[in-house]
Design goal:
nucleus; 40% helix; binds 7-methyl-guanosine-5'-triphosphate; alpha/beta; binds S-adenosyl-L-homocysteine; cytoplasm; 7-stranded mixed beta sheet; S-adenosyl-L-methionine
Length: 247
């Protein structure tokens, strides 16, 4: 038989434990400058980078834009499968804090990581060091549209800005909403680099328009579209074109 009062004591200690956990978490958040916009992504930090606690660094745009690690691994596996080469050259045209570039490098790709924001690439270099792959990545600060004509590679990876977390309030996300230029323009610049293109897009993207991107080539490129899930939630849509599509 339980002694009188045991249950109450247990409840109190569970409550105290929960309170302590909250206090520790709040201190951690404060130490890492977690703003209200970033908070929900901070709670998903180990899905974004499994090595988060080893010193991963982010800025606000990095938090809401980084490709979750398992999805970035999927993109990297598909890159390797798309070429018969042992070290394919992947051009990550909007590299951000390195979520994709790091996984490409871990799969033995040679990576060119471009971002217009020098601060992003500082963070990406820090993050690549944590995964031990900084030596496999050429980091280039610059505007993709200016650099594109001088780039050569096997696969082009495009994860451009979607316009911030409010992207999801748009019912039918047409390619015009992509930043800093519309999706058709981004795709045309990518085509000049290689006919093997991977594009990471919002889950509410207009799929008809995504298919139409393949018509920008003659004959049209093969296209394959997949939804990317993480713990039963769809996080985005990936379109594979040309040699990157499954035949
Ligand atoms: P989300 O929809 O803002 O988060 O971003 P979540 O947790 O799915 O939101 P919820 O409200 O549905 O619960 C989901 C994922 O999309 C992020 O983890 C990023 O990988 C990607 N993503 C989001 N944004 C705003 C961008 C962006 O601007 N650019 C790129 N390339 N990816 C983005
Ligand atoms: N895939 C990345 C996230 C990319 S977010 C990751 O997993 O970390 C999109 C990035 O595009 C932002 O970092 C932004 O600075 C960059 N960007 C915006 N305009 C650009 C341009 N004209 N050229 C290159 N990069 C650009």
């Amino acid at each position: 038989m339980k002694k009188k009062g045991t249950r109450n004591k247990k409840n109190i200690s569970v409550k105290a434990h929960k309170k302590r956990k909250h206090i520790i978490r709040d201190r951690e958040k404060a130490a890492q400058n977690v703003s209200p916009v970033v908070e929900k992504y901070w709670f998903q930090r180990y899905n974004l980078f499994s090595k988060y606690d080893e010193g991963i660094k982010m800025d606000e745009e990095g938090w809401y834009s980084v490709t979750p690690e398992q999805i970035a691994i999927r993109h990297a596996l598909r890159c390797v499968a798309a070429t018969a080469k042992p070290n394919p050259v992947v051009i990550d045209c909007f590299a951000g804090v390195g979520g994709n570039a790091i996984q490409f490098a871990r799969m033995c790709c040679s990576v060119v990581a471009i971002d217009i924001d020098p601060k992003k690439l500082e963070l990406a270099i820090n993050n690549a060091k944590i995964y031990g792959v900084q030596h496999c990545i050429d980091f280039i600060v610059g505007d993709f549209f200016q650099l594109a004509p001088s780039l050569k590679g096997d696969i082009v990876f495009l994860a451009p800005p979607w316009g911030g977390p409010s992207y999801k309030s748009i019912e039918n996300f047409t390619l015009d909403f992509l930043k800093p230029r519309d999706g058709f323009t981004i795709f045309q610049f990518a085509q000049a680099i290689a006919p093997n293109i991977i594009m990471f897009l919002p889950r509410n993207v207009d799929l008809q328009q995504v298919e139409e991107l393949s018509w920008l080539s003659s004959p049209p490129l093969e296209v394959e579209i997949e939804e990317n899930y993480l713990q039963n939630n769809v996080k985005g849509v990936t379109a594979y074109f040309g040699g990157a599509a499954c035949h």
